[in-house]
Amino acid sequence: MKSPVKVLFDEHEIIQSAIGIAKEAEILIAKDGIIYENTVRKLISFFREYADQYHHFKEEQILFPEMSKKNELLEDGVLKEMFENHSDFRSMIKSIEIFLDSKDYKEAQQQLNTYTETLLDHIAVENEEVFQMAEALFDDAELEKIYFRFEDCDRELGESNKVNLVNQLKKTQNSF
Ligand SMILES: [Fe+2]
Ligand SMILES: [Fe+2]
Q: Can you give the pLDDT at residue 174?
């Protein structure tokens, strides 16, 4: 069966690998500031495009609204928290960028660490609570429908661009 939950799980794994790189980036500050800055800018692009545009978008526009339709109580509960996290992530990414612009790499890394730790917690709540709920709320036909809407979403944003983003991430990982 085509599972939309599996799609999101798999995307979480890719995002977690970017978080691993973000943590390792700290060693570059002492080595070479320019390489550090370039690496973090690449990570920012990845988080903005892959994590936010491809991944959070599917949750916000498709999965969470469908879950709320099934159970209204979810809207003010865990799903509201997930929406708020997504919005906080956007602000956090902006603040990392501001510190990079002012070449304050130490503070940029501190903000990046806060971002990645919060994102890891967010992923854990989704993996362990939200996605389990989704699987319990929907029957197979409904899950398949959501899966195809996810596919449409990726197609609109560009499937080859999605693959490129993952390849770029691997290159970033291998560059230090
Ligand atoms: Fe999320
Ligand atoms: Fe997620």
A: 85
Q: What gap in Å lies between CA 24 and CA 19, rounded to an integer?
A: 9
User: CB atoms < 10 A from the CB of 112, how many?
Assistant: 26
**Shortest-distance ligand to the CA of residue 85:** 1
Distance 53 CA to ligand 1 centre (A): 11
Distance from residue 101's CA to the centre of ligand 1 (Å): 27
pLDDT in tens, 22-45: 999 999 999 999 999 999 999 999
Q: Residues of the chain with pLDDT > 70: what percent?
A: 100
Superfamily of domain 4-174: nmb1532 protein domain like (1.20.120.520)
14 neighbors 169 (Cβ within 8 angstroms): yes
DSSP 8-class letter at 61: I
Asked whether the whole model's pTM tops 0.90, one would answer yes
Residues within 5 Å of ion ligand 1, judged at the Cβ atom: 59
Compute, in angstroms, the gap from residue 43 CA to the centroid of ligand 1. 18
From the CB of residue 109, how many other CB atoms can be counted at a distance below 10 Å?
Answer: 21
Q: Break the chain into its structural domains and give their ranges.
A: 4-174
